[in-house]
Amino acid sequence: MPANTAKIEELVSREYQHGFYTPIEEETVPPGLNEEIIRIISAKKQEPAWLTEWRLKAYRHWLTMQEPTWQNVRYQPIDYNAICYYSAPKMKERPKSLDEVDPELLRTYEKLGIPLREQEMLAGVAVDAVFDSVSVATTFKEKLAEHGVIFCSFSEAVQQYPDLVRRYLGTVVPYNDNFFAALNSAVFSDGSFCYVPKGVRCPMELSTYFRINAAKTGQFERTLIIADEGAYVSYLEGCTAPMRDEHQLHAAVVELVALEGAEIKYSTVQNWYPGDKEGRGGIYNFVTKRGICLGRRSKISWTQVETGSAITWKYPSVILRGDESVGEFYSVALTNHYQQADTGTKMIHLGRNTRSTILSKAISAGHGQNSYRGLVKVMRGAEHARNYTQCDSLLIGEHCGAHTFPYMEVRNSSAIVEHEATTSKISEDQLFYCQSRGISLEDAVSMIVSGFCRAVFQELPMEFAVEAHKLMGVSLEGAIG
Amino acid sequence: MTKQPLLEIRNLHVRVDGTPILRGIDLVVHRGEVHAIMGPNGSGKSTLCYVLAGREGYEVTQGEVLYEGRNLLAMSPEERARAGVFLAFQYPVEIPGVGNMYFLRTALNAVRKSRGLEPIDAMDFLQLVREKARLVGIDERLLKRSVNEGFSGGEKKRNEVLQMALLEPTLAILDETDSGLDIDALRIVADGVNALRNEQHAVLAITHYQRLLEYLVPDVVHVLVAGRIVRSGGPELARELELRGYAPYEQAAASAPL
After folding, report:
1. Backbone phi and psi for residue B75, each to the nearest 5 degrees, phi listed first
2. Which chain B residue shows the shortest CA-CA distance from A433?
3. Which residues contact residue A201 at a Cβ distance below 8 angstroms, ignoring those fewer than 6 apart?
4. CB contact under 8 A, A438 and B81
5. Separation of CA A459 from chain center
6. How far, in whole angstroms, is CA B35 from its chain's centroid?
7. pLDDT tens digit string along A345-390?
8. What fold characterizes domain B7-255?
9. A7 touches chain B (CB under 8 A)
């Protein structure tokens, strides 16, 4: 049997596809973190005084905080003064149209499979392209504007829609929420902003593509999405980075706000550089994502496919404040080689008749360690709250690990909370069964993994389902056959 | 001129976890023949099936197996399948989340590819699978579910016969396909196998009981006891076994040297 195991391990250890570096002139601030650096970043972005103050407040609070140690991951201490907190491709001004964008940047995104020129783009997907610390292009803005949808870089939103930004920034993830959120609040450089007005169903998928390029640089972006009453938006997020021997930090914050009857669907395909086979290099993906269902019958749905990063620390959560609101979390996390993931969600039930669903699929291969960590909290007023949680782990090979840390706090006796968990190995029986029908071992592994992830992949928008399948080394036919 | 056997097993010895299970099997199967192998529990019937299909963990210590004159034991399980060897499992395996239709089409296309054929067109496949499903009495709804997941015992067995009907193997090995089936299901399974029967194909049916052989009349019956074929004969041998059981053979085997 070890013969097969060895073959399987070989199959899942593919080379990273997006590890190239774009030689482009960048403007960077010196490494290190202090009030001066924060003022420089804020000044570069010509921010209003209240925002500079907010950053500084976050920084001062961060100085009093300890880096968390409760997560089930191991890494060398991070020297926060060795990181460069701002790096941007040199541009005279923010380009007004794609024609003014450096062709080298356009080529970078083309190489990544994200053409930014509208005639070449995937129909029906608007893209905001974030390169290191800045947004370099946002497509389909005019078309979205016809529907009253605002979709732009965060920096632009601060200039053009300061009232909206000020009203919602930090309301879901406060600047003092946790160590990495506080750091982000102090130094965040760009990200995406989206506002969908009352009753509008956003006519296309919105997406942000994050690219880390510069060395020794952290990426600290901030995304804020607001769906007004009865609005709907589906948002996609993709990420890649060059291959490097040193680790790079990515500490983002995402805040979602859904008002009465609104729905936000947020999908991520995370493929940051995971490090090499010996665990050298790779991104530390320490991210805070949270949404609030403010109004009645609102809904927030997180779907994530996490295949990259050396370490993932991420718990996309939903605060269910509005009565009858719905929170969902669908996750596939794959750890291979020496990758570590500690990921899951928090569902906080405040309103009556609130419902949440958690479906987590963890795949571990090589020496990968994969932990699901989830909290379901039902507060006293959450009459008839319901939660269903299912956590499945799949182990490939002999040296990997899967761990589950479910927490439940229920303070209302009318609540129904269910939890199911399974751990299995890719079985020799399944492999042999496929092979004895003429299917190669490689296709058999793909097929079984794809089947394992199917319930989550089904939640992804079509374009992303394709991407996710490719990432998992799986053909799309597996999901639709 | 004597024709080349489809399958020729010569003095096959196999161990599992160091324990000898097969102790010198000799068997010759020609195209067009149906052979039945009968034997008590633990006699090595399933081991023989798995060795022929290429499962890992079965150590061949002596002997050889020729399939169409080629060394079968040197081929991977998928190569054997593509060359026309098919094993209908005693306990078909569930593959959650993988659609049965998709599985069947992938298998068929893998076999077609090895024969230099183009992948089957989606519409043609749908038509083909429906036709075969009718033949083996499979509810079309089962085609839309995950492979074997939540299928009853009988449904799983019929699904095996459906796969066989689609892949049209040259050598079909049935590992106790009759076990756990009621009479109606048994007849359907036997009909499915009989439909494949012609001078190009051969069947090796492993069974514990004689009743399958009433519907699937074999040309040759072999008695497998303690890892050896102790007797071979015509269909009448099966009826004799039904009456007298395996006890006389087991006693003889117990006193034989290893």
Report:
1. -95, 150
2. B93
3. A231, A232
4. yes
5. 15
6. 11
7. 999 999 999 999 999 999 888 888 899 999 999 999 999 999 999 9
8. Rossmann fold (3.40.50)
9. no
| Contacts of residue B243, Cβ cutoff 8 Å, sequence gap at least 6 | none
Name the percent of chain A in helix, strand, coil, to the closest 5: 25, 35, 40
How far out from the chain centre does Cα A342 lie? 13
- Region A306-325 average pLDDT: 92
Q: Where are the beta strands (DSSP E) in chain B?
A: 7-16, 19-29, 34-38, 59-67, 70-71, 85-88, 95-99, 146-147, 171-175, 202-207, 220-225, 228-233
Q: Of A388, A391, A395, which is closest to residue A417 (Cα–Cα)?
A: A388
For residue B149, count CB atoms less than 10 angstroms from its CB and return exposed for 0-12, middle for 13-18, buried for 19 or more.
Answer: middle
The pLDDT tens digits of the residues spanning A2-61 come to 455 555 555 555 566 666 677 667 777 888 899 999 999 999 889 999 999 999 999 999
**Domain locations in chain A as residue ranges:** 2-480
Helix, strand, or coil (residue A347):
strand
Supply the pLDDT for residue A480.
25
Residue with tokens 């991407």: A467
Residue whose pair of structure tokens reads 């499945």 in the numeric block: A392
Selecting from A436, A440, A451 the residue whose C-beta is nearest the C-beta of B98 gives A451
User: Best of A434, A450, A477 to disrupt the B interface by mutation (most B CBs within 10 Å)?
Assistant: A434
User: B110 vs A477: CB contact, 8 Å cut-off?
Assistant: no
Q: Which of A4, A428, A478 sits opposite B98 (nearest CB)?
A: A478
* Nearest-by-Cβ selection for B95 from A435, A436, A448: A448
- Region for residue A46 given its phi and psi (left: phi exceeds 0; alpha: psi -120 to 50; beta: otherwise): left
User: pTM for the complete prediction?
Assistant: 0.81
Choose the closest CB to B105 out of A3, A436, A481.
A481
Cα gap A349→A355, rounded to integer Å = 8
Q: Write the pLDDT tens digit of every residue in B87-138.
A: 999 999 999 999 999 999 999 999 999 989 999 998 999 999 999 988 888 8
Q: How far is CA B115 from the centre of its chain?
A: 22
Residues of B in contact with A390 (CB under 8 A): none
Q: Domain-by-domain residue ranges, chain B? A: 7-255
